[in-house]
Amino acid sequence: MKPEELTSFRMLLRLLQARLRGDVEQLQEEAFSSSEAGGDQRSSNHMAEMGSDAWDLDFALQLVENDQGVLDEISHALKKFDEGRYGLCEFCLEQGLPETKSRIPKARLQAIPHARNCVDCERKKELSR
Fold first, then answer.
1. Same domain (yes/no): 69, 102
2. CB environment 72-95: b (16+ within 10 A), e (fewer)
3. Largest CB tally within 10 Å, which of 4, 67, 92, 113?
């Protein structure tokens, strides 16, 4: 991959990381502030509203967990930059393929800049689960 393309992908990852960090912080703040302040505005004696509030909290925490998983993947991808292995399919490398045969297509990296594997290897992993 050309140096300017690598720079572009690194910038894309950092922008995505910053956006997700902001989303996670906001979701956590909203989820926990509403559950802690539940005695004031959002509190209700009606069972249906209490159930709805619990569902909202659970949903927000699931979103935080999903975003945190993506943040972990982004951190992993940024480490791969430092190691000079960004854009290489981890599964292909584990199978012993040379780096020239282990490249993740640019189109995939544009769609999922933190992708660990090429499409074929990702399909194989999904089928084996």
1. no
2. ebbeebeebeeeeebbbbbbbbee
3. 113
